[in-house]
Amino acid sequence: MAKAVKLSNGREFSSQKAATVHFRAILHAYADGDEIIDAAHHSDLVALLERYDDAITDTPSKIGTGIVRFERRLNVGAGFATPGFWVERADGSWTDFSFPTAISAKPKPQSQEFADACRGVVASDLRAAKLRHFKSHGDEQGRVPCDITGQLITIDEAHLDHAHWPFGTLIAMFREARGWHEVIPTGTLTAPQNQQTTTTFADPAIASAFKAFHHRTATLRVISAKANLSMASQQRRPKIKLPVKLEP
Q1: Dihedral sign computed on CA atoms, order 78, 81, 133, 162
Q2: 37, 34, 86, 81: which is closest to 62 by C-alpha?
Q3: Any idea where the domains of the chain sit in the sequence?
Q4: What is the C-alpha separation between 35 and 137, in angstroms, rounded?
Q5: What does pTM read for this prediction?
Q6: Which residues have CB under 8 Å from 123's CB, separation 6+?
Q7: How many CB atoms neighbour CB 177 within 10 A?
Q8: Are 200 and 117 in contact (CB under 8 A)?
Q9: DSSP code of 195?
Q10: Which of 103, 122, 172, 229 has the fewest CB atoms within 10 Å of its CB?
Q11: Are 129 and 185 in contact (CB under 8 A)?
Q12: CATH class of the region 5-104
């Protein structure tokens, strides 16, 4: 049975999915940089942030000195750009918060935080490798063949696929090699703080080690993002026709 989500302002949802649909609709009702001006929207976000602070007690309070207003902003990091809610507090400080985390009332698992840090380490290298691949192998219209179907695709239609091993497996292998399969040592990841939209490694040496491991181990290819991700996941060790190369 789905678990209901009840907020302090009296708003109630039959499930976390229903709450997610509601708050995503609020997010998409505004453009980046807009203040959340609808009174009902503001009330729902205040109650949601109270739920966040009640549940996530091992990080600094998001409400802090009190809520002044909310904005929609574009969260930009290594390899991503997604809209999200930000809150201005009574002392003039701003911070972001994850509405899915607030709805679930559970902190993000440490393994997911570790994976986020790994993705951030290699994101710029992956983008550069994809651009070089299309520049080197593109036809007169800038298209390259999908490595699964052979269909010509543009860079916007393409997904850079970790063919062997999947990225999640690479992370598990890296952790295993360092003896971190069960527990990630305290202090490995950056502590949550205001305006930190993604987790990173606290020690640059660990970031460098994962980057080197990824470069040695990853086998990359370009496939159609629209049609072939499910097909790719079913291939255990595919034969790569035109591998994408990472620079050392």
Answers
A1: positive
A2: 86
A3: 5-104, 110-233
A4: 45
A5: 0.69
A6: 77, 78, 79, 80
A7: 11
A8: yes
A9: T
A10: 229
A11: no
A12: alpha beta
CA 175 to chain centroid: 20
Say what the pLDDT of residue 14 is.
95
DSSP assignment letter at 43: H
How far apart are the C-alpha atoms of 20 and 33, rounded to whole Å? 21
Q: What is the structure's pLDDT at 116?
A: 87
pLDDT tens-place values along the chain, 248 residues long: 678 999 999 999 999 999 999 999 999 999 999 999 999 999 999 999 999 999 888 778 899 999 999 999 998 876 667 899 999 999 999 999 889 999 998 887 889 889 989 999 999 999 999 999 999 999 999 999 999 889 999 999 999 999 888 899 999 999 999 999 889 999 999 876 666 667 889 999 999 999 999 999 999 999 998 766 666 666 667 788 888 888 76
Q: CA-to-CA distance for 3 and 125, rounded, in angstroms?
A: 41
Greatest CA separation found in the chain?
A: 59
Record the tokens describing residue 93, joined without a space. 């400080």
Q: Are residues 167 and 79 in contact, defined by beta-carbon separation less than 8 angstroms? A: no
Asked whether 98 and 113 are in contact (CB, 8 A), the reply is no
For residue 223, the one-letter residue type is I
pLDDT recorded at residue 238: 76
49 is written with which tokens? 């942030």
Using only the alpha carbons of the chain, give its radius of gyration: 21
- Alpha-helical (H) ranges within the chain are 16-28, 39-55, 99-104, 110-137, 167-177, 204-217, 229-233
| Residue 155, pLDDT score | 95
Is the peptide bond between 165 and the residue preceding it cis, with omega within 30 degrees of 0? yes
Please give the helix or strand (H or E) that residue 173 lies within, else none: helix 167-177
